[in-house]
Specification:
Strands 2-1-3-4 form a 4-stranded mixed beta sheet, with helices on one face. With 234 residues, it is of the alpha+beta class.
């Protein structure tokens, strides 16, 4: 069976596990602490980062872009009818998503409004770019999931949690992305691809009282973050 080495709120890991869920490929997952990485993990991850995918033959693969391409090639494709040109275009749009995972993480951890605005500029450019190419289909290419949908899922899932818990909408002014987000979340892949405590861990790290979004949340709702977590609002 495939094995994924993970950290519980890592967007790069969610991209891999969401693809495994979409393809209905059986896998097991092991979580590690990034603050205290075990030596066995460092032995198989050249840069000491997650995700790592251990194949059925025992080969350790690293870098999420490489892992998802392996899964698409080694197992039945999400869309086997796609032309080479369309596949290349999709790969480019997928890269744009993964390049912005850490951009979004940085924005969410901003300590004040000024740094939040500065860190959100690049992310907004990415959202604006894909807003311009989205059509009327349920997903990126057609009404069927593709690798692009899987790549953008972590960004859109986290934007949804921030909106629900902090009242800030990363997707304001992007109606086609909002519709896309709704379809992706309705598929159930976002929650299937993360641990049960994902929302609580995400809120504790990104919407704490150390962050601008966490402070904004308190201002907007007057509800303590502990109450938010207990009520299940996120």
């Amino acid at each position: 069976m495939l094995k994924v080495i993970s950290f519980n709120i890592c967007p790069f890991v969610q991209r891999v596990t969401a693809l495994l869920e979409a393809k209905r490929i059986a896998y097991e997952i092991e979580y590690i602490s990034l603050k205290d990485k075990p030596q066995w993990f460092l032995n198989i991850s050249p840069h000491g980062q997650v995700p790592v995918l251990v194949t059925e033959s025992g080969e350790a693969l690293f870098e999420s872009d490489a892992i998802v391409e392996y899964l698409e090639e080694a197992y039945p494709a999400l869309d086997s009818t796609m032309t080479n040109e369309r596949r290349a275009i999709n790969r480019a749009w997928s890269y744009l998503a993964s390049k912005n995972y850490l951009v979004q993480c940085s924005a969410q951890r901003s300590p004040n409004e000024k740094s939040f605005e500065e860190r959100s500029v690049k992310l907004n450019r990415a959202f604006a770019a894909i807003e311009n190419v989205l059509g009327k289909t349920l997903f990126f290419n057609t009404n069927t999931l593709s690798m692009v949908d899987i790549a953008w899922l972590p960004l859109l899932h986290r934007a949804s949690i921030v909106e629900q818990c902090a009242g800030y909408d990363f997707l304001l002014g992007y109606p086609k992305i909002k519709r896309w987000q709704e379809q992706l979340l309705a598929s159930g892949l976002a929650t299937k691809a993360v641990p049960d405590n994902f929302a609580q861990a995400f809120v504790a790290f990104y919407l704490s009282d150390e962050t601008f979004l966490g402070k904004k949340y308190d201002i907007c709702t007057g509800m303590a973050l502990d109450t938010c977590k207990a009520s299940g609002c996120c």
